[in-house]
Amino acid sequence: MEKKTKKTVWIPVLTFLFLIFGGMVWGLLKPDQAYSDTENRYLAERPAFSWESLFGGSYTRDYESYITDQFPLRDQWVGLKTRTEMLLGKAETKNVWLAQDNYLIVDYPASDFEGEQGGQNRETLANALSYYVNSLGKDHVRVMLVPSASQILMDKLPAYSPVYDQSLYLEEAVKAAEEAFAKAGIEGGAAELFVDVEGALSPHAGEYIYYRTDHHWTTLGAFYAYQAWAESLGLSPLSDAGLREVSDHFWGTTYSRLHAGGEADVISVYDTEQNAVLTHNMTDQTEGFYDWEKLAVRDQYAVFLGGNDGLLEIRTDAEQEGEEEKTEGERVLLVVKDSFANCFIPYAAEHFDRIIVVDLRYLNMSLAQLAGQYGATDLLVLYSAQAFATDATVFKLGR
Amino acid sequence: MVFSSLLFIFRFLPIILLLYFIVPRGWRNAVLFFGSLIFYAWGEPVYVVLMLFSTAVDFTHGWFIRRSLDAGKKRRAKLTLISAVVINLTLLGVFKYTDFLIGLLNQAFGLAIPLPGLPLPIGISFYTFQTMSYSIDVYRGDAHVQKNIIDFGAYVTMFPQLIAGPIVRYQTVAKELNERRESASLFADGIALFMAGLGKKVLLANNIGLLWDAVAAMPAGQLAAATAWLGALAYGFQIYFDFSGYSDMARGLGLMLGFHFPLNFDYPYISRSVTEFWRRWHISLGTWFREYVYIPLGGNRKGLAVQLRNILIVWTLTGIWHGASLNFLVWGLYFGVLLAAEKLFLLSWLERMPRAVGWLYTTFVWLVGWVIFASVDGAGGPEYFASLFGAGNAIDNTTLYLLRNYGGMLILCILGSTPLAKKLFLRARKAVGGADGQGLAWQFAFSAASALLFLVCTAYLVDATYNPFLYFRF
Questions:
Q1: Which of B184, B203, B464 lies closest to A9 in CB terms?
Q2: Last residue of a domain, which of A72, A105, A121?
Q3: A129 and A16 together in one domain
Q4: Domain identity same for A242 and A343
Q5: Are A60 and B407 inside 8 Å of each other by CB?
Q6: Does residue A89 belong to any structural domain of this protein?
Q7: What torsion do the CA atoms of B277, B283, B287, B290 make, to the nearest 10 degrees?
Q8: CA B221, CA B228: separation in Å to the nearest integer?
Q9: Domain count, chain A
Q10: Which partner from A147, A306, A396, B192 sits 20 to 30 angstroms from A205, CA to CA?
C-alpha cells in the first residue's frame, strides 16, 4: 500500500535526529571533568590511542567508559533513572532501600561480612586485643563495631526485605577474641571488651540516630553509643547530648548514588566547651573539633574533625599547653577507627586529656610503637561493622 | 558495539546517518560496508578479518556457481556449493565447537587433550548462516549473483543485523541491496521500531534480568518453589525482551536505511502450542533451518518416519546453534521431541481443549525450557529443578520481597509480551492521526512520547550498572 507522505512526518524524524546529534555535539563540546564530587571518584578520561591497546581490545573498552563517565548532566540522568524506578514501585535500587520516612538505607550484602577479608580482620582484631590487654589491662581496651542503619532501623525497610543480620559478624568476632585470649592465657573472656552498640541504639530507633541520605550515624546516635562505652569503662558519661544544629541541607553519600528521593539531613554537633587543639599528621594545628568550612562543601560530614587523617592528636588540657610530654596520671586514649568515630570523639574527649586518633587507611606506622610513643593508657577500636569487615587495611592493627 | 550503548546512540549512529545520507546514492552501500566494519571491529578488532574472509569466500563461490550453471556444468556448481558450505561450517565449527567437542572426547575416553580456548567471535553464528544462504540461493536460482563485492559486503556485514539477527537470507534483501528507496516516512516508522526495541532492551530486559540474577545467586537447592518459578519467568522475559528488542532495533535501523528486514518475534508467549511458539520465536532462524535443512532433507513429503527424523535433526542443530554446551543440545532435543509429539497426536488433542489449556501447557514448556537453557551458568541444574517442583517451601518471605520489588516490572513485562501495546499504538494513531496516521497532533504526540522514552532509556544507559549482551554464545 503506497500511502502519500505528508510533510508532518518530518516532526518525529527531526525530533529523533535532534536528540542523537544534540547528545553527540554536547558531549563533544563539554569539557572533560576529572573528578566527580558526588561519586567520590576519578572519572574515566579519554584513553590514549595505541595500536596495541586497539587490538588488545582495551582501547575501545576504555573509550566506552570515557563516554559514559563524561556524559553531560550525569547526575541528572542518574536522578531520572531513580525516579523511574520509584514510579515502577521498586523497593530497592542500586543496593539502596527506598525506606519509610524518606530514609535511603544501604543494603550491604551478606558477602561483605562473610567474605575472606571479614574473617581475616576478625583474626587480626582478636590478636591485637590480646596484645593490648596484656599491655594496657582489660579495663582499658574496648571495641565498638557499629551496625549500619538497616540493622537498627529495620522497621523502616520495605516489607519482607531480606536483611543480613550484622550481629552474626559481631558474634564471630567475639568468638575469635575468646579463642585468642584462651591461647594467650588471659582470664575472664573477651566478651566484655565488645561494647553492645546495637543494644545502645535499638531502644532509640525512633529517634534521629542515622542520617536519611548518608550511611553514617548522627551525632545523637554516636552519643547513645558513647554512653554505653563510657559506662563499660566505669566512667560517668554525660547525660545530655548537648546538640547544636549546624546544617539543615546535608545530602550524603547514599543520596549521591541515587540523586533522587530522601530528604535533606540536619547535622548537629556536640556543643562542647572544651578547648581542643588538633594536630593533623604531626604537622598542621587547628583549634576545635569542627572544621566549619566543610559545611560549604558537598560532603558536610567532614565538619567532624575536618575529615579523616592518618594520625590526629587531640589535646584538651588547654592549661597545660606547651607541655609535650605526658604528665603523671594523664589518660591518653588511642582510637583506631573509621569515619564513624569522627562525631563520637568530642564526647570521648570529656574523659581523656589526650586522644590519638588513627585511621589505618591513611597511616603507615607501627601501631604498637605509636601507642608507646604517645603513652596510650586506653584503646578503642571503633568502626562501622561493614567497613571493618571489608577494609583491607585492618591488618595494620597488628603491626 | 551494541545498540544499547551511549557510544552507538550518540556517536556511531549520528555519524553513520550523516555520511549515509550526504553521499550520492551509489556510494551508500560503501558507507554501510565500511561503517559496519568499524561497528564490528570496535568489539572484535582481530576477528573482523574472519568475517571478511567469510565474505570473500561466498562472494567468489557464488560467482563461480553462477558461471558453472551458465556453462551447464551442474556438477561443478554443486561441488562449489559444497565447498562454500564446508568452509563456512568449518569456520563455525573451529571457533564455536572445538572446545566442546574436545571436552566430550576427553570425558568419553578419559583423555586429557588440552582445550585451545578460542574466544567465540561475536555474531559468527549469524553471519556464517547469512553468507551460506547466499551461495545456496544462487545455486538454487533463488537469487541473482552479486557482482559487486562492496554491495555483497554491505549485505554480510550490515551493522543493524550483524551481531544478533534477524538472519536475513540473501534473497530477502537482494533487490533492496541495489534498488532501495529511503524516505522520511520509512525513517519515521524506523524510529518507532527502534524506540520500541530500545525500551524493550534497556527498560524491560535489563531490569527484569536483575530479578533473574537475584534468584540465580541464591543457593538453587534452597529456593521456595514460587521463587524458582519466578526466576524462570524473569529469565524468560529477559531473554525475550532482550532478543526481540534487538531485532526491533535492527528492523528499525533497517527501515531508516531503506531496508525491510523480516519480522523475527511475533509475541511467542501468547502461543497455545509448542508448534505455534516456534513459529513466533526467532522466526528468521526457524525459516533458515526449514529452507536449508528441513525441506532439503525431505521435510514432511517422505513419510512419517523421515519427517520425525528430520524434526530431530533440525532441533539438534537448533539446540547447539545456541551454544556449544550440552544443555543447549538437551534444550533443542526437548523441543524436538515435543514438536514431534505435537505432530503425532498432541496438537489435534489440544485443539479440542479449551484455549487456556493450550496456553498453560505451552507456557509451562517454555518456562522449563528456559531453566534448561540457563543452566549453563550453573544456576539451573538438578537442584533448581528440584526446587521448581516443590523440594522446598511453596513460598517464603524471599518470594514476597521479590514480588514486592519487581511487581511493577513484572506487570509491564506481562503486558509487553502481548500485542496490547501495539494495538493501543495503532488505535491511538488512527484516532489522533486520522486515516493516514499522519495528522499534526499525532506527529507531535508521537514525537513527544518517543523523546520521553528515549530520555528514560538514556538515563538507564548513563547509569548502567547492568547491561549484558546475552548472545555471546550464539
A1: B184
A2: A72
A3: no
A4: yes
A5: no
A6: no
A7: -20
A8: 10
A9: 2
A10: A306
Range(s) of the domain holding residue A214: 96-398
> If we measure between CA atoms, which residue out of A138, A170, A199, A196 comes closest to residue A378?
A138
Q: Is B405 in contact with A162 (Cβ distance < 8 A)?
A: no
Task: Say how many Å lie between the first and final Cα of chain A, rounded.
Answer: 82
| Average pLDDT estimate for B268-291 | 93
Which among B397, B398, B443 has CB closest to A8?
A: B443
Record: contact B408-A89, CB cut-off 8 A? yes
Q: Are residues A133 and A56 in the same domain?
A: no
Q: What is the dihedral of CA B12, B13, B17, B18, to 10 degrees?
A: -50
Question: Is A52 domain-assigned?
Answer: yes
Residues A247 and A388 in one domain: yes
Is residue B29 within 8 A of residue B177, CB to CB? The reply is yes
The mean per-residue pLDDT over the stretch B217-229 comes to 89
Same-domain check for residues A30 and A171: no
Q: How far apart are CA A34 and CA A54, in angstroms?
A: 23
- Entry pTM: 0.88
| pLDDT value of position B377 | 55
Q: Does residue A79 lie in a domain region?
A: no
> How far is CA B261 from each of CA A100, A140, B165, B169, B199, rounded to the nearest angstrom?
49, 77, 10, 9, 20
Q: Do the chains contact at A24 and B409, CB–CB below 8 Å? A: no
**pLDDT at residue number B351:** 87
d(CA B444, CA A237): 68
- Determine the residue among A59, A81, A150, A256 to mutate to test chain B binding: the one whose Cβ has the most chain B Cβ atoms within 10 Å: A81
Same domain, A110 and A58: no
> In the block, which residue shows the cell 549473483?
B145
B438 chain-A contacts, CB cut-off 8 A: 5-6, 8-9
**Is A90 within a domain?**
no
Distance in angstroms (rounded) separating the CA atoms of residues B103 and A315: 69
B282 part of the active site: no
Q: What is the pLDDT of residues B47-92, one digit of tens each?
A: 889 889 999 999 999 999 999 988 888 899 999 999 999 999 999 8
Query: H or E element: which one contains A337?
Result: strand A332-337
Residue where one domain finishes, among candidates A28, A56, A72: A72
- For residues A221 and A115, membership in a common domain is answered with yes
CB B17 within 8 A of CB B32: no
pLDDT tens digits, one per residue of A20-57: 999 999 988 988 888 877 777 788 888 888 888 888 77
Report the chain A residue with the minimal C-alpha distance to residue B13.
A20
Helix (H) or strand (E) holding B316: helix B304-321
Q: What is the DSSP track for B332-356?
A: HHHHHHHHHHIIIIIHHHHHTS-HH
Q: How many other C-beta atoms can be found within 10 angstroms of the C-beta atom of residue B335?
A: 23
Residues A67 and A109 in one domain: no
Q: What is the distance between the alpha carbons of residues B390 and B385, in angstroms, rounded to a whole number?
A: 9
pLDDT at A317: 67
Nearest Cβ partner for B447 among A11, A78, A161: A11
pLDDT of the residue at B458: 94
Paired with A204 in beta bridges are none
